[in-house]
Amino acid sequence: MTPNRRRFCVAPMLDWTDRFYRRFARELSRHAFLYTEMVNTGAILHGDQQRHLRFDDVEHPLALQLGGSHPGDLARCAKIAEGWGYDEVNLNVGCPSERVQSGSFGACLMLEPDLVADCVRAMRDACQIDVTIKHRIGIDQVENYAFVRDFIARIAEAGCETFIVHARNAILKGLSPKENREIPPLKYHYVHQLKQDFPQLEIIINGGLTTHELCSEQLQHVDGVMVGREAYHNPWFLSEVDTRYYGEGAAPANRHDVMLAMREFIEAELSDGLPLRLIARHVLGLFHGVRGGRQWRRMLSDATLLKNAGWQLIEAALAEIDRELP
């Protein structure tokens, strides 16, 4: 375990934190710890590994998040992740979607701590990189602190040292994944208490963190913060990460420079036949709140303009932005 590496993390977000978003995020922060979107073990063991596991070296530090509940399969995937060069493998024990539940993994695994412990132990035995888990504080109406405390104690016995805690319950029936991120109340004090009860463990807090002030406040109580949708919808948020949380590096000069730094990567991907829309969708929020930002978003989300488009479309959209603004 390397404590301050995960001082600021960008959350794994299904369909969002793909390799194109992560490459973009790295232009904004060199140090933020990045996570892939969740990949289930079957997709890795029986599917297209290149599609699911490929990443650019500049994305480090980078973790692969796995979905699964079979210790043997997870162990094999952890070994594969190590071979691909990932810095960490993370087990998803927090996703509440019914699609995930049907595969017997995600948040429902919190009800089976012995199985989770077996999974973690198998993964740790299979690889030398960090094995971590991401989970909720409770399930459905189980809201007492003792539930999550005892869960962590059991998994720590299996050798896990890093716990990423979404400070909400997971409601397994009746709420969509989006509602599960908004309706169950945040209980940050539960996560703070976990750090007090397990000072030897690395505790990272997740859920509802939308400002740097709130993140800094949480870091008075825990080892790290994990930010999700704010980092995606308002990516300029990441431009302060290196100086605020790691005490080094300079923020990008301006948002134009961030996009210009992406040019070589984008043109290389386009030359390989990638449609521009697969990258453009991740940069729509870069000029959030800036004059011309609406036009930027409109142009880079217009299906007609994007069809067969190249770098010239991005140049045209950049021309709409007020260059006097940061």
TrEMBL record:
Reactions this protein catalyses: 5,6-dihydrouridine(20) in tRNA + NADP(+) = uridine(20) in tRNA + NADPH + H(+); 5,6-dihydrouridine(20a) in tRNA + NADP(+) = uridine(20a) in tRNA + NADPH + H(+); 5,6-dihydrouridine(20) in tRNA + NAD(+) = uridine(20) in tRNA + NADH + H(+); 5,6-dihydrouridine(20a) in tRNA + NAD(+) = uridine(20a) in tRNA + NADH + H(+)
Pfam families linked: Dus
Keywords: Flavoprotein, FMN, NADP, Nucleotide-binding, Oxidoreductase, RNA-binding, tRNA processing, tRNA-binding
Residue span(s) of domain DUS-like FMN-binding: 10-317
Record-listed FMN binding positions: P12, M13, L14, Q65, K134, H166, N206, G207, G208, G228, R229
Cofactor(s) in the UniProt record: FMN
InterPro entries: Aldolase_TIM (IPR013785), DUS-like_FMN-bd (IPR035587), DUS_fam (IPR001269), DusA (IPR004653), tRNA_hU_synthase_CS (IPR018517)
Coiled coil: none
Keyword Oxidoreductase: yes
Active site: C95
Domain of life: Bacteria
Gene Ontology MF term list: flavin adenine dinucleotide binding; FMN binding; tRNA binding; tRNA-dihydrouridine20 synthase activity
Site note Interacts with tRNA, residues: N92, K178, R181, R294, R297
E.C. number(s) listed in UniProt: 1.3.1.91
Tagged with keyword Lipid biosynthesis: no
Homology family: Belongs to the dus family.
Family annotation (PANTHER family): FMN-LINKED OXIDOREDUCTASES SUPERFAMILY PROTEIN (PTHR42907)
Function, as annotated: Catalyzes the synthesis of 5,6-dihydrouridine (D), a modified base found in the D-loop of most tRNAs, via the reduction of the C5-C6 double bond in target uridines. Specifically modifies U20 and U20a in tRNAs.
NCBIfam families in alphabetical order: PRK11815.1, yjbN
Protein name in the entry: tRNA-dihydrouridine(20/20a) synthase
Organism: Chitinilyticum piscinae
Recorded name of the encoding gene: dusA
